[in-house]
Amino acid sequence: MVKKLAFVAICFAYLSGNAMAQDAKAVIASAQKALGDPKSITYSGSAKDVAFQQCGANATQMNCQGTHDPMRPISNYVRVIDLAAPTSRHTGGTNNIGPGGSTTVSAGTFFQQITPQQADLSQPWAGSVEFYLTPWGFLKGASENNATARRQGNYTVLSWSPAVKAPSGKAYVINGYVNGKNFVERVETWLNENIMGDMHIVALYTGWKDFGGAMAPASIVQTRGGWPFFEVNVSAARVNPSDLATLAPAPPPPAGRAGGPPPGGAPGAPPAMTVTSEKLGDGLYRLTTGQGSYDSLLVEFKEYVMMLEAGQPEARGVAYIAETKKLFPNKPLRYVWNSHPHADHTGALPAYVAEGVTIITQKNNEAFFEKALNTPRTLLNDTLAKNPRKVRIETVDAKKVYSDGNRVVEIHHIYPTPHSNGLTIAFIPKEKILFQADYTLPAAGQQPNDHIRALQPIVEKLKLDFETYMPVHRGAAPLTKGDLWKAVGK
């Protein structure tokens, strides 16, 4: 009797699974039919984007207001999706600004594409996700990759996985939410990201309508990790355009270089993380990996050690932590100071979180780090994924002083600046060092950007008695207060 019941259960499961597969095929076919079964589509309008963990060049608001605020406008936006190739391109006019906090806005070109090689589902998911995140790309992927279907509220949810696996070995999953009119209203997936963990990527497609024979959404809003990332207001669309090949053309290569790979051949392997510790004072060291390094300062207090700046990538953080334990084997590494939340200054933070180290950061960054570093990391196999811990954060408002009666470190918020609204500097009075990130002085004969211009009067007002102007981004020569003053014409 038990064997019969087991056999019946197996048959039921098989039939149910087969029915789900059949249901998925029917849902996919109906959704493709609702879109007109296009082989290709183009749509246009206006858009805006942002570099992840940063803020954009917006001529109406040049100072950074927060994570992804403001975003960068894109005019004359055009996107082409070729399902046969498969490939995708989109382009438009946008604002460009100078490096490191310049507020000089110049006209530029937005252009992004997904090549057929990138769209290959055996290739990295990060390279193809923007194609399959579209309703048309999603349905193509669903029809070719054994999608399943389930009901959730008013939607039928189609799910499938690419062939490529995450670094942890886990399968990626992409879901599409099909409404009662057979339109895809939402597509979501998860991507392994160094800071955001299993970063949730969501694209919403609303206001579906007929643009003269082409069905398309009037509004597209994409978020990553819960933060705004890309938006489009669609004003026109066409299916199977005859001029497909000429739409959304790639911009010409930069002056002085023809198309193709950059000079020097393929990029080499990343440099080995060989750490050098340079003693700057009693219980004060600079940790570096040489030219092009993200340097950190290691400060000894009576009961603990503080690391100033984590840098990137994770391997550098792991190497710096190991060096700290060699230099101070009997004291815990209690704090790591974060200058600001940009990706190149946060990449090593997961290694510190895994060690139980508390992050010191400006209070405007707290929500970002709380959300990012507490996100599950099931797709990664990094230090924090292997040793999960909740992030611990200590915030700085305008100023915070750490002292044991002998050693002192001051953290100061520098704002307003174009670069970040959560940027701080570290001042070490005993050795008269001002340690800073991204306040890069101009080359000889060049003018300082607005970021540097913002720093100097604030430092002067604070009456910081520093002599050494030390950057996180290691330079070729040491800098002084005089170099900063000279750069701004003082």
**How is the largest sheet built, in terms of strand order?**
4-3-2-1-13-12-9-8-7-6-5
Coarse morphology: globular
* Strand composition percent: 25-35%
How far apart the termini lie comes to 93 Å
What is the SS-derived class? Answer: alpha+beta
Helix count from the secondary structure assignment:
10
> Total number of β-strand segments?
25
Radius of gyration: 26 Å
Question: For the report, how would you describe the main beta sheet?
Answer: 11 strands, antiparallel
Q: Level of helix content?
A: 10-25%
- Poorly predicted regions are 5-19, 256-269
Mean of residue pLDDT?
A: 89
Short recap of the structure:
Helices cover 22% and strands 32% of the residues. The chain is α+β, with helices and mostly antiparallel strands and 490 residues long.
Textual characterization of the structure:
There is one protein chain. This protein has about 500 residues and is of the alpha+beta class. Helices cover about 20% and strands about 30% of the residues. It contains ten helices and 25 strands. It has an eleven-stranded antiparallel sheet. The chain has a seven-stranded mixed sheet with strand order 14-15-16-17-18-19-20. Strand 16 (about 295-300) and strand 17 form a beta hairpin. It is globular and about 75 Å long.
